[in-house]
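Deliverable D4.2, example record:
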Amino acid sequence: MPTFTSADGTTLAYHVTGTGEPLVVLPGGPMRASAYLGDLGGLGAHRTLYRLDLRGTGDSGTPADPASYRCDRQVADVEALRERLGLDQIDLLAHSAGGDLATLYAASHPERVSRLVLITPALYSLGVEFTGEQRQEAVALRADEPWYADAAAGFANILAGSPTDEDWRAVVPFTYGRWDAAAQAHAGAGAGQRNLAAAELYYAVEAADPPGVRAALSALGAPVLVLAGELDTGPRPATAREGAALFPKGESAVQPGAAHYPWLDDADAFTRLVAGFLR
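Output generated by the structure prediction step:
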């Protein structure tokens, strides 16, 4: 397992799988170890994946300064990985909350990004929010599922601001296009992969400057793909279109039947779409 040292002296780890041109991959969570991404449904057959374990997660070290868990502060870690790999430019893929880290990196280092893929991303860094109404729209799409009643009740409690641990467990099926054995195993494996203390600091108020980020992205010449799952509670397809429009060369796509982990819901469709964009 290779490691490198970031600008503040923190030792960070990354995992290499696949074959072909390099693709730097950032996990979500926020602050979840990158193991849950696997080889992204077989994308490793098309590209060599360099999966970064964010500071304080997976095999990476813990920083001396907890404030460095802030999303904007971790931009330096992505740049340090690029330098470690000896690449003048990188193709960059990010999932979920990692989408904000990737977007901030692109805003800070537009000349270093050749292509950017945002998979069911958070878009808070652009000032794009997922509303409760949008999320309820996605919830209603699953009304025929056998687990729907408990999950919908849990979701209502979350939106009301009074969730229990049981509510959070109940809504997990909404994040998968099929709540089958594979999805349940994936969800179970993720239980201990997040650094919860770091996650609370990732979206610190000081990290957010959407107008400044949008202005900086005017210098980004790289094509950008924002991929939404048809069934995902966030981002919804309309949200992905809104986010994509804020990039000079942004486009959005919707994977049918997919939720928050589209490479698990239909690996062939996912790899065909993403590999095609990266070509």
